[in-house]
Amino acid sequence: MFAQLLPRVTRLGRRLAQALERRLLAATKPGAPLLVAGALADLARGKPALIAENALLRQQLIVLNRQVARPRLTRRDRIVLVLLASRTRCCAGIGRASVSSGARAHGRPLGDRGSPPTRWP
């Protein structure tokens, strides 16, 4: 009985895995109308905006192409990404700190450099 049940369960597992893979691919595939709309929106944008966005994407690729499992952003990477993102319309809010962010929102004192002290009183 177990010998008959195991192949059926294996087939069912494969079918479920294939169905899940198909749904995942369909959910993550960009739609064609959005691609066309994005291309049309790019035509209306100026050359400096397109150059800035291209530089931002290139910097992201530089970070991702590092030969490690999870690339770490250096201080220079963060600065370059924030500066480039501020020049593009789609990412203009990146890098802007709000008053409610960080330790100030929780009523904690800030150290000399604007960061929380290492020891709390």
Q: Evaluate the radius of gyration.
A: 24 Å
- What's the story with the biggest beta sheet? none
Mean pLDDT: 75
Oligomer class = single chain
Query: End-to-end span in angstroms?
Result: 69 Å
The H-and-E topology, N to C, reads as HHHH
- Our estimate of the beta-strand percent is under 5%
Summarize the structure.
This protein has 121 residues and is mainly α. It has four helices and no strands.
Verbal overview:
There is one protein chain. 58% of the residues lie in helices and 0% in strands. The chain has helices at 2-28, 32-44, 47-64, 75-86. The protein starts with a helix and ends in a 35-residue tail after the last helix. Mean pLDDT is 75; it is low at 98-106.
Name the descriptors:
0% strand, elongated, 4 helices, single chain, 121 residues, mainly alpha
How are the secondary structure elements laid out?
Elements: H1 2-28, H2 32-44, H3 47-64, H4 75-86
